[in-house]
Amino acid sequence: MTIHSVVIQKLLTTNAHIGRQVATHHFKQFTYGFRNRQAIIDSDKTLICLRSALNFLSYLSRDPSSSFLFINTNPLFQPIVDEMTTRVSSLSPERASSLWKLRGFLTNSFSPKKFRSRHKKLVFAPTKMPDCVVIFDTERKSSVFLEAERLGIPIVALVDSSMPWEYYRKVTYPIPANDSVQFVYLVCNMITKCLMLEKKKKDGAKGIGTKATTEDKVESAGESEGTASDEVLVVPYDSLVPLSDDIAESKQLLDKLVVVKFNGASGKSMGFGGPKSLMEVKNGSTPLDLIVNQIQLLNSKYGCNIPLFLMNSSSTHNDILKVLEKYSSSEIDIHPFEQGEQTQLESIFGEGGEDEWQSSNHGDQFLSLMNGATLDVLLSQGKEYALVVNPDNVASVVDPKILNHLAQNSIEYCSEVMPTTSTGLINFMASSLQGKFKLEDFTSDHTQKFVKGFKFIDTRNLWLDLKAIKRLVGTTALSLNSLSNSKIFEKSVGISIPHSRFLPLNSTSDLLLLQSDLYSFNEGILVRNDERVSPSDPHIDLGPEFEKINEFKRRFTTIPSIVKLDSLEVAGDVWFGADVVLKGNVIIDANPGLPLRIPDGAVLEDEEINSPADI
After folding, report:
1. What are the distances in angstroms from CA 454 to CA 418, 427, 438, 501?
2. Does pLDDT of 100 surpass 60?
3. Based on CB atoms within 10 Å of each CB, which residue in 289, 386, 567, 611 is the most buried?
4. How far apart are CA 213 and CA 562, in angstroms?
5. Could you tell me which residues are beta bridge partners of residue 335?
6. What is the pTM of this model?
7. How far apart are CA 186 and CA 226, in angstroms?
8. How many CB atoms lie within 10 A of CB 611?
9. How confident is the prediction for the chain on average, in pLDDT?
């Protein structure tokens, strides 16, 4: 039995999956459907949200001066909460005096008062503001939601399928589940273990020697100098609130978006005689087809107008113009232009529409565009946000969910980032893939040999607030070529996206991954095969014999099945037959000067092949 199965069974025993008889529209993302007139909550999504909440609490607990406010109004939960708060207080004496514990409801934090209640009693610690509020009984709709929102205090809360939107939207880290006594006990136990683990890590680090102590002093001194500006807050994609079911409201939001895609990259290094965005990826579709299909479907579904602006280089512009003829009947405004054609750009933007941008090394060209009258025209047309798409990323998504998050939280700068390694369920409580991270934890080089030592990859997909660009454009500080520039914006975040949302096309090894049975297309979006167990993609390294596309096509009769593949290394004069299946770790290294053909229907699992005799 896998660890995942064990954890899911543990959740099922707490009845966390049994929801109410109704499911609000914003909660449907967490449900499977209904059974016996009761909403069934997806336990996998409960785990994901629980992990995110625990990661956040663990991050806060690293500061010894941090404090938490645990709120509960259900007498059935009170002994459990009491035990947890006692153990949490004992972990750090300096935190005991600032730990908040509430039995009842939250009132004015700065001037606590005494209240009488028939069944409740109210206990306040000192009036220091908490760093986080944890709510176990959200059904009571406590005024703490409103107060915490006004004070800017993040909320971690158990939410059920009937929770109204006006309360749900105030929760920073929702945990979708039935608030049974068993599940509350499980959550409290996990919170305690997380905080104990953080304390153990800290004690271990301080025990290393003088160097650790000196680093602690430097870090402490640096906090007073505002080192927080060198940190990036990373928010998990699964915690984002979905787009409203109200078509009119969604249309109003999407009409504020503009999309920009760069097409300056050539496929010459892969033996392709045109722009990389016109290279066939799968079933006759190109990267340009995918982005056009996505925008067209959004325009059709919501009745909005999201235009696509294509920034071409002088070497790719004519090829792009020829291909655009096939989109003439589509419901999308496509505006191609050569980089540097400022006059043409201003006339195009003046027609209105939505703009999408890419966070690539083409940031300078984008800013030169904004230095003219183009930005003023966009703002006058009601455009407020831009998505800048990485030209190499075939899996880029025009995602209304991210746009909605920006609008609701007044975010000016958002970069899509991806964890360099996947975190298993066995250590999800201690995972560090949530919270604030230093800039040195990020890299823009996604190749395997360069990601070691980093926690995130900057995918170079960038969402921007046009009003913030207007405020900053023309200043010497403004640049979009690096994540470090996010600190000049008033509010910036990174969205942690899954591995399936970042698939660069830079070599035939990448092309093999995209053309395999591991991925399929649905409405212009790459969808991973459900049979793939590992959250990360297999590592593929094809030798120089496969470097050019023509040779790549010749050497594969059909693309092998790689759903269960972990890694593949191919070197030498190797030829693949039809319907080959690759599993585990496979190395194929043909002897020098001798061709090696993998026969039709061969199944290779954890093998090293050097000659036909090895097959």
Report:
1. 11, 19, 10, 19
2. no
3. 386
4. 49
5. 309
6. 0.59
7. 37
8. 11
9. 77
